[in-house]
């Protein structure tokens, strides 16, 4: 067993009495399994005294944690300088609270004066600056095994997760706007660690001075201007970068915390493990962008959102600019241990995608940087063939994608999956190449490629001949098929939210060239848009990640008769937690001439339950505060039986036209009465009793979700942008009937 002084710093030490009624505690995150604590108590009385150490799994807040049963607890008889060893059964990685309390005879607490960035000290339950002198006994590799490299690095800057991460996102299912099912269960896969990275752009604040121009809409209205650089429709002089379409949150900037919080939740719900910042041009590190994101993601993690962790991608060669950026990023974030819970580790160290050849080991700081990170070079070539260069990752590859870091047994470390490519048989080309043949969203390398899915009892085949094939992500699916077949350790996806491209008089032989993004077909973002693509690609992303990783189990359905007026009757029915803080307020400028506000958060559901008996289905929702009185768009319950197209996959809606009224979709956002339910509101809890007789007789399951203060006009994208929704977006919870 290796004891690591997890909380020890070089700050000034002090001692305090643990007198009657006082307790000192430290909240921390263990990155590996552990089974002991070593703690030395100063004893300030001649005959010694007694002190109790208790270890708790951290739950929601300090008070809740202290009221729970301890993982381990022991009372010690002490003499001055006595070492206390609290040993227990091995605990898995996660967030904990270590408490020193009930001291007698002058027993004390050893503390550190300065704040430690990744732990939280509490005195009598109140957060305070400082930390605790203690050591953790890690048992990686066995009961008395050595410490792994990953844990050593984690303990150099201890990780403080600030989140419980109990929301069962992998168990949620959905039906998207094309009738494709996002599976809650995807079948078994061979056991191995799999990770998904997502290219992410945090520099949108840099271009907000320009007027937003929606290229897709311009191109529909003026197709003749596609390759005409001088056309006035492009508003030259008013903007430099052009949007391929409008995001669902408007023409936002990277300083908009509302959008960042929404992105954190959506990426967490998609089960994305890390995002990769684009620092591939010049010496731009986009500090305002990453600072705002780190702050917002840290807040989201405190609310239980398992946000992706972060990685920086630098220039595509060992330029001098890479050397500058490495020093800036390392000294600003990593060397200081800032936001350590958000660092993504690979091979035991924080990952950075950069060419380390720009560093000189003879320089002390360069040597420190070389030792600190796991480096992977980034390959800029879409057409790279195997064998690929060592210690290199791709970021975008045409199908069939190359395997990177291939091992002797044929397995590989990383592969790419792209939504689309600014490439063609000619090589690298702009998205609006005058010669055509660009590998857009509908492109497939195999001319006979197709994928098939079931929707409402019928088989749907998607191929190049499918009407509006750009909605279905043929290129995206073909690339994911190969990645799933090869089964690399890491799938790197391009991308989430680039949105804009520059415009050039000529590039790669094409006039009026848009190199990276152009319109709905020739663009490579997964973030939902206000155009025809809506959230189709986001839902396809979720489904494919589940195909790649596998999923968790669907929460079980308890068979029990519930008295909805008696909250105690829900005892024994599992609670399904939901994220907090999912509907932040918004008051932000976007691109030039735009400003966005949102204050629609009202009844935020933080926990749901459900049960069934022979006659009824019962629903329970607890909100973050007292539930408001019924009003417009109040506490709607959306239900799907997967038996009819309904509205966006939902057959029934409760509380749309009046409290307790259940309605059935007559096709789209057209509803007809279907019967009455019973509802009871008690403080922050709403419960529903719905007769099974109102639902189809042959329904072996239903899916449901809660939505408050949205869907006034039946726009499904409201579930992402307005009011409160649980689960998020289109996601639903399954009830076995």
CATH class category label of the largest domain:
Alpha Beta
User: Strand content of the residues, in percent?
Assistant: 25-35%
* 3D shape: globular
CATH architecture of the largest domain: Alpha-Beta Barrel
Task: Report on this structure.
There is one protein chain. The protein has 737 residues and is of the alpha+beta class. It folds into three domains: 2-156, Jelly Rolls; 178-549, TIM Barrel, CATH 3.20.20; 558-736, Immunoglobulin-like (Sandwich), CATH 2.60.40. The chain has ten helices and 48 strands. A hairpin with a 3-residue loop joins strand 38 (605-612) and strand 39.
Question: What is the topology?
Answer:
Blueprint: E1 2-4, E2 13-17, E3 23-30, E4 34-41, E5 49-57, H1 62-67, E6 72-78, E7 82-91, E8 94-104, E9 108-112, E10 120-123, E11 126-128, E12 131-132, E13 135-138, H2 149-156, E14 174-175, E15 181-182, E16 195-200, H3 215-221, E17 241-243, H4 257-269, E18 274-278, H5 287-302, E19 309-313, H6 320-334, E20 345-346, E21 349-353, H7 364-372, E22 374-379, E23 392-394, E24 404-406, E25 412-418, E26 423-424, E27 427-428, E28 451-455, E29 458-462, H8 474-486, E30 490-494, E31 500-502, E32 504-507, E33 510-513, H9 536-549, E34 558-559, E35 576-577, E36 586-589, E37 595-598, E38 605-612, E39 616-623, E40 636-640, E41 652-654, E42 661-665, E43 671-676, E44 678-682, E45 685-691, E46 701-708, H10 718-721, E47 724-726, E48 733-736
Parallel strand pairs: 16-18, 16-30, 18-19, 21-22, 22-23, 25-30, 34-38
Antiparallel strand pairs: 1-13, 2-9, 3-8, 3-10, 4-7, 4-13, 5-6, 5-8, 9-12, 10-11, 14-15, 17-31, 20-21, 24-25, 26-27, 28-29, 32-33, 35-38, 36-37, 38-39, 39-45, 40-41, 40-46, 41-42, 42-43, 44-45, 46-47, 46-48
Helix pairs in contact: 4-5, 8-9
């Amino acid at each position: 067993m290796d004891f690591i002084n997890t909380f020890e710093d070089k700050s000034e030490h002090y001692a305090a009495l643990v007198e009657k009624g006082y307790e000192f505690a430290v909240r921390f995150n263990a990155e590996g399994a552990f089974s002991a604590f070593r703690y030395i108590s100063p004893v300030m009385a001649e005959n010694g005294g007694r002190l109790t150490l208790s270890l708790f799994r951290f739950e929601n807040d300090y008070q809740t944690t202290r009221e729970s049963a301890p993982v381990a607890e022991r009372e010690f008889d002490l003499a001055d300088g006595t070492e206390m060893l609290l040993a227990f059964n091995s605990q898995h990685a996660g967030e904990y609270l270590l408490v020193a309390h009930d001291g007698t005879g002058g027993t004390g607490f050893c503390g550190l004066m300065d704040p430690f960035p990744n732990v939280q000290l509490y005195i009598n339950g109140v957060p305070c600056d400082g930390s605790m002198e203690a050591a953790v006994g890690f048992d990686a590799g066995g009961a008395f095994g050595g410490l792994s490299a990953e844990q050593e690095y984690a303990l150099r800057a201890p990780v403080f997760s600030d989140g419980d991460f109990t929301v069962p996102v992998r168990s949620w299912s959905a039906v998207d706007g094309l009738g494709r099912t996002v599976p809650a269960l995807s079948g078994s896969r061979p056991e191995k660690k799999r990770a998904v990275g997502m290219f992410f752009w945090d520099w949108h604040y840099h271009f907000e001075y320009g007027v937003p121009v929606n290229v897709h809409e311009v191109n529909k209205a003026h197709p003749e201007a596609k390759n005409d650089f001088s056309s006035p429709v492009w508003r030259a002089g008013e903007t430099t970068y052009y949007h391929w379409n409008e995001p669902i949150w408007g023409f936002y900037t990277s300083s908009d915390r509302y959008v960042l919080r929404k992105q954190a939740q959506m990426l967490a719900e998609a089960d994305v493990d890390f995002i990769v910042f684009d620092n591939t041009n010049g010496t731009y590190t986009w500090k305002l962008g990453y600072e705002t994101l780190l702050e917002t993601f840290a807040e989201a993690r405190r609310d239980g959102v398992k946000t992706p962790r972060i990685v920086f991608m630098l220039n595509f060669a060992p330029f001098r600019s890479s050397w500058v950026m490495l020093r800036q990023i390392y000294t600003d974030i990593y060397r200081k241990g800032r936001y350590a819970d958000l660092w993504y580790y690979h091979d035991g160290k924080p990952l950075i995608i950069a060419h380390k050849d720009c560093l000189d080991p003879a320089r002390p700081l360069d040597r420190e940087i070389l030792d600190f990170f796991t480096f992977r070079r980034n390959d800029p070539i879409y057409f790279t063939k195997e064998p690929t260069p060592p210690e290199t990752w791709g970021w975008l590859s045409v199908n069939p994608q190359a395997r990177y870091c291939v091992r002797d047994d044929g397995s590989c470390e990383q592969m790419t999956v792209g939504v689309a490519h600014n490439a063609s048989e000619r090589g690298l080309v702009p998205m609006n190449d005058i010669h055509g043949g660009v590998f857009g969203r509908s492109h497939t390398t195999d001319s006979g490629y197709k994928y098939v899915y079931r929707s409402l009892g019928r088989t749907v085949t998607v191929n190049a001949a499918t009407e509006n094939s750009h909605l279905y992500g043929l290129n995206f699916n073909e690339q994911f098929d190969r990645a799933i077949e090869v089964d690399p350790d890491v799938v790197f996806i391009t991308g989430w939210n680039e949105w804009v491209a520059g415009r050039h008089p000529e590039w790669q032989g094409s006039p009026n060239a848009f190199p990276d993004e152009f319109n709905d077909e020739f663009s490579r973002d997964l973030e939902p848009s206000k155009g025809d693509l809506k959230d189709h690609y986001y839902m396809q992303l979720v489904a494919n990640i589940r195909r790649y990783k596998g999923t968790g189990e669907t929460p079980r359905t308890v068979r029990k008769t519930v008295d909805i007026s008696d909250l105690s009757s829900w005892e024994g029915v599992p609670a399904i937690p939901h994220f907090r803080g999912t509907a932040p307020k918004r008051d932000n400028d976007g691109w030039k001439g735009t400003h966005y506000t949102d204050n629609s958060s009202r009844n935020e559901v933080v926990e749901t339950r459900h049960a069934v008996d022979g006659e009824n289905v019962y629903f329970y929702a607890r909100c973050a505060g007292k539930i408001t009185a019924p009003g417009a768009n109040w506490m709607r319950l959306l239900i799907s039986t997967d038996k009819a197209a309904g509205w966006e996959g939902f057959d029934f809606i409760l509380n749309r036209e009046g409290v307790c009224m259940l309605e059935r979709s007559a096709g789209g956002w057209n509803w007809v009465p279907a019967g009455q339910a019973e509802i009871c509101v008690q403080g922050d809890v709403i419960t529903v009793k719905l007769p099974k007789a109102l639902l189809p007789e042959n329904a072996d399951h239903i899916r449901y979700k809660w939505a408050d203060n949205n869907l006034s006009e039946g726009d499904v994208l409201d579930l992402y942008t307005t009011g409160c929704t649980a689960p998020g977006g289109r996601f639903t919870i399954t009830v076995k009937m």
